[in-house]
Amino acid sequence: MEPPDEHAKGQTAAPFRWNRDAFFAKLQADFAKAKASGRAETRLLVARELEAARADLAEMIAIARGNRIDHDRLADLREKLFELAPAVVAFPDDASSYLALAEEIRAAARVFANVEDRHALYTTLYGLRVAVEEVLLAMTEAGAKTFEVWTHDVRSKSTTSDVPSAIVNGVYVQSGDMLLSRGGAPTSALIARGSDFPGNFSHVALVHIDAQSREVSIIEAHIERGIAVSTAAEYLGDGKLRILALRLRDDHPALIDDPMLPHAVAMAALKEARERHVAYDFGMKFEDPEKKFCSEVVWAPYKEKGVDLWQVRSTMSGAGVVSWLGSLGVGSFETLAPADLEYDLQLVAFAEWRTQRSLRHDHIDNAVIDGLLVQAERGLALAAPWWKWPLAALAKAYSWVLNRFGKVGPVPEGMSAVVALRVSDLMARFAASKTNLVLTVEAFEGQQKRFPAVWELVEMAKGGGKDSA
Questions:
Q1: For residue 213, what are the contacts with CB-CB under 8 A and spacing of at least 6?
Q2: Please, are residues 35 and 90 in contact by the beta-carbon 8 Å criterion?
Q3: Cα Rg for the chain, rounded, in angstroms?
Q4: Buried b / exposed e across 91-127, counting CB within 10 Å, b at 16+?
Q5: Fewer Cβ atoms within 10 Å of its own Cβ: the N or the C terminal residue of the chain?
Q6: How many CA atoms lie within 13 Å of 358's alpha carbon, on the beta-carbon side?
Q7: Tens of pLDDT, residues 250-303
Q8: Cα 298 to the chain's mean position, in Å?
Q9: Among the ranges given (155-164, 192-201, 211-220, 298-307), the one the predictor scored with the smallest mean pLDDT
Q10: Measured between alpha carbons, how far is 373 from 319 in angstroms, rounded to an integer?
Q11: Domain segments of the chain: what residues?
Q12: pLDDT tens profile 342-366
């Protein structure tokens, strides 16, 4: 692996926009054609196209030079899978070959892509994620259950490394691994979708595994109580909608120099978490060591060991996003968004956990917040009515007392009473819009006999958001 391009640090790209309404309309028309053609004919078409695509991918990887792949051919291959998606969604319970190839293309993009071409990388990794999930959501519950846990070849096994490892939820995990996740709260959706490159993750944690006992500890920063340490069972039982496991690439120069570096990183993070109280950093100022938000828990100890993660810093430039996040205490809009760690090519994704039920929640929540952010762009502000200030101040005072005894109050440490009111307003708006959207989705499913596609959900949410504003 080549060292990270230091010139990429701090660079930003224009906010991502799909701008492909005509293409999405074509995909919907292709779905109708596939259903009309019948299962037998559609299966033959998909099998033929997948065989050609797999051969093309193998050839691209074989002739890759200088750790770089032919981006034009990769883009063509990605488009081919986009175009095949309607046929697979039409008859999804025999879609294992499609899902496997999509993940192989995503893995190849992570190994061979250029971090400098952020739009192309995002389109491949995020776009094929959407395609895969459209197929999973179209399956029967029993069919989708087969794909709830995804693992990537030998990188999910710790057979050659001395780094302490353990089995977590059926997957080999190593000390120093990173866990991206998505919560079900409105703020989780806002964090995941507010970046210039909207993603699916709102939180990141660091894994520590004891070398002797193999006990698994998860180090993470919580809004409610700052940096904390939990067990694997506590982490997995915390209502997460999805989890993606990442690990430093085997050929990373720092790992070649010191194979035990990830474990040293995890030990340093665990030591800090146990030795001092670190409050949550609502400002998202990642270079301030006194407070830390979730990404800093991972970034800071790796940075100390010479590995600078987030090859391209996250940016939030939309007027509505900046207004809302600023009113919630965020002070830095070039930062380390958890979702963007998925696109750091110094890392390999080796496992993912998600259920069909959690994906439905995730897609609906994404659409709700996307719809609300449209209103934010039009000038809608989060409210903190003055007549609620006295009660909020009392809640804050009560929380302050609890914090002194190491307990959690109704207003998180570091959050003002006024900000707490704005969070409450966000939650109320989100709940109202989600109620409208769920009703719309249920009606759609009753008529169409399928779950709406991502772009359909967003359009529904925009309409629902207007009614609930």
A1: none
A2: yes
A3: 22
A4: bbeebeebbebbbbbbbbbbebbbbeebebbbbbbbb
A5: C
A6: 21
A7: 889 999 999 999 999 999 999 999 999 998 899 988 877 789 999 999 999 999
A8: 15
A9: 155-164
A10: 10
A11: 6-147, 151-353, 368-468
A12: 999 999 999 999 999 999 999 999 9
pLDDT tens-digit series, residues 30-51? 999 999 999 999 999 999 999 9
Query: Locate tokens 């708006």: which residue?
Result: 429
Cα(309)–Cα(248) distance, integer angstroms = 10
What token pair was written down for 401?
Answer: 């007392």
CATH code 3.90.1720.10 for 151-353 = yes
| Residue 432, token pair as written in the block | 């109202």
- Please, which pLDDT band fits residue 9 given cuts at 50, 70 and 90? very low
